[in-house]
Write a structure and sequence with these properties.
By secondary structure, the chain is mainly beta. Among the domains are: 28-179, Alpha-Beta Horseshoe (Leucine-rich repeat, LRR (right-handed beta-alpha superhelix)); 467-603, Leucine-rich repeat, LRR (right-handed beta-alpha superhelix) (Alpha-Beta Horseshoe), CATH 3.80.10.
């Protein structure tokens, strides 16, 4: 027993001696490389050379005060915690960037500035910024995905661009009442951030400032005069917004994809509503547009839940597709004193009712266009799935691009008077089985329900509801852009007369399983076979000199044969995966890919 006690005492003494010797040998200053500043009266840490996970920075090194943490001094180093002494006044750019194991940092009151990217990509969970700090740099805490809470003192007057970008765990943050601008993307992609108080000191909210956050309601104070593009883009939980009367414009995509938004006011000083401003706010069932508004941008209210809307007197400019995809919209009204626009039976026209601008997407049944209308505007009936038939009067001379795309029509007749038809006018009309043309029309003709030019040299539109196989007549030399788009076609035979397959010609022909491109074709247009998912093989003949962007993208091709080398593939995205690169080096031959390998093509012969 005595022997055991003696052994324990000796081991303890040995351990204490060892630790004392280690302590005498260890010099904490040796863990840091420094640079002298302030005329040699102080130092800044330029690199951490130690191996300790828990770091305590000494207040003095080489007998001089440590006043700063230099650029990238700790970047990408595996440290767990850092204690910064009271002597430090600045933390420079990327000082602790991507220290992924760093979960705790103590920032003293002496610090006045935190540089760009200083703590970006770290594992910090809670941050308290001390009272001495006046500015937080760009990306200072970006990609700190474990960060849940930040306390910002009233001393801060500036928060940099993307300062808390993709802090996806952030649930709580305060904006001090000395901050005047919420900069671009400051809180973008903070998905757990459900509430925010914007102080009266703020005058501007930058582009994307709160995009993709979890905010549920927002009150914008009277001090704010400017809200940037995409400021609240994709805030899917945002249900209510109160905008101050000081705001004069709602910019592009400000509230796009705020799918829960049910209530928003447009102040009576707003003069413009930008492109996509409320696009896809599907829960928004009503909106009041004030008389101050003079312009409404493209797709401003597209795919919303609006049931009716009134265009006020002051509006002089309306962009394309402003109510596209509004399937509950049954009436568009225009105040009588508006000098540019008018409405009749809930349909939007120009003032003279010579141009039919937009038919509301929720209006159902048959419709007769009034006599006197000469132009059916671009996308005028686009995605109007509830319309079943249309009567076009002899006064109409022009039908715009995609005018009836995606409409619920089953048949249509083009009158003699029409001399101009835009691309894709009847594309994606899945119920449309026949397009007829009055025999006396000088520009267009139809055969078996398919629309052609008068000489049948150009195939303009194949009806989307016409299924099965189809053989293009030998007279055709050109397949117009989006001619077969969205059709139920399963097989297509293209004659040797065809030289050009237009852009998007077979776009979204998801049932198409077989197509033979003849040796006469020289150009395959942009997106010509885009999203033809059932098409697994194709042969590119000798005659083809150019394959345009995304011509065969988004489809199920597993075998492609090129009959010649040197065909110009204008972009790598023309085919899925690395086929464009493999063909450039391998030339003519057959290339295949296994479905499971996805991107990788192999030349087999």
């Amino acid at each position: 027993m005595k022997m055991m006690k003696r052994t324990v005492i000796l081991l303890t003494l040995a351990l204490l001696v060892g630790l004392t010797a280690y302590a005498q040998q260890y010099d904490p200053e040796s863990d840091f490389e420094v640079e002298r500043v302030n005329n040699g009266r102080a130092v800044v840490i330029t690199e951490y050379a130690g191996s300790r996970g828990e770091v305590r920075i000494p207040p003095r090194i080489q007998g001089l005060p440590v006043v700063g943490i230099g650029e990238s001094a700790f970047a990408y180093i595996d440290v767990i915690s850092v204690t910064i002494p009271n002597s430090v006044t600045s933390i420079s750019e990327d000082a602790f960037a991507y220290c992924e194991s760093l979960t705790s940092v103590t920032i003293p009151n002496s610090v006045t500035s935190i540089g760009d990217g200083a703590f970006a990509g770290t594992g910090l969970t809670i941050v308290t910024i001390p009272n001495g700090v006046t500015s937080i740099g760009e990306n200072a805490f970006a990609y700190c995905e474990s960060l849940t809470s930040v306390t910002i003192p009233n001393s801060v007057t500036s928060i940099g661009v993307s300062a808390f970008f993709v802090c996806s765990g952030l649930t709580s943050v305060n904006i001090p009442n000395r901050v005047t601008s919420i900069r671009e993307d400051v809180f973008a992609y903070c998905e757990s951030l459900t509430s925010i108080t914007i102080p009266n000191s703020v005058t501007s909210i930058g582009d994307g400032a709160f995009a993709w956050t979890g905010l549920t309601s927002v009150t914008i104070p009277n001090s704010v005069t400017s809200i940037g593009k995409n400021a609240f883009d994709n805030c899917e939980s945002l249900a209510r917004v109160t905008i101050s009367n000081s705001v004069t414009s709602i910019r592009n995509s400000t509230f796009r994809d705020c799918t829960s938004l049910t209530s928003v006011n447009i102040p009576n000083r707003v003069t413009s509503i930008g492109e996509n401003a409320f696009d896809n706010c599907e829960s928004l069932t009503s909106i009041t547009i004030p008389n101050s508004v003079t312009s409404i941008g493209e797709r401003a209210f597209a795919s919303t839940g609006l049931t009716s809307v009134t265009i006020p007197n002051g509006v002089t400019s309306i962009g394309p597709n402003i109510f596209s995809g509004c399937r509950n919209l049954i009436a568009i009204q225009v105040l009588p004193s508006n000098q540019q626009f008018s409405s009749l039976d809930g349909v939007l026209y120009d003032k003279a009712q010579r141009t039919l601008i937009l038919y509301p997407g929720g209006k159902s049944g048959a419709f007769t266009i009034p006599n006197g209308v000469t132009t059916i505007g671009d996308r005028a009936f686009s995605d109007c799935r509830n319309i079943t038939s249309i009567t076009i009067p002899n006064s109409v001379t022009s039908i715009g691009v995609l005018a009836f795309a995606g409409a619920g029509l089953t048949s249509v007749t083009i009158p003699n008077s029409v001399t101009s038809i835009g691309n894709g006018t009847f594309g994606w009309c899945e119920n449309l089985t026949a397009i007829q043309v009055a025999p006396g029309n000088p520009q267009f003709s139809s055969q078996d329900g398919v629309l052609y030019d008068k000489a049948q040299r150009t195939l303009i539109q194949y009806p989307g509801g016409k299924s099965g196989a189809f053989t293009i007549p030998n007279s055709v030399i050109f397949i117009e852009a989006v001619a077969f788009a969205g059709s139920s076609l399963t097989r297509i035979t293209i004659p040797n007369s065809v030289t050009i397959i237009g852009g998007g010609a077979f776009w979204d022909c998801t049932s198409l399983t077989s197509v033979t491109i003849p040796n006469s074709v020289t150009i395959i247009g942009v997106g010509a076979f885009y999203n033809c998912r059932s098409l697994t093989s194709i042969t590119i003949p000798n005659s083809v000199t150019s394959i345009r962007y995304e011509a065969f993208a988004g489809i199920g091709l597993t075998s492609v044969t090129f009959e010649r080398a040197g065909t110009t593939i204008e972009n790598a995205n023309a085919f899925h995966g690395d086929l464009a690169a493999k063909y450039a080096s391998g030339g003519a031959g057959t290339y295949t890919r296994a479905v499971g390998l996805g991107e990788v093509w192999t030349k087999i012969r």
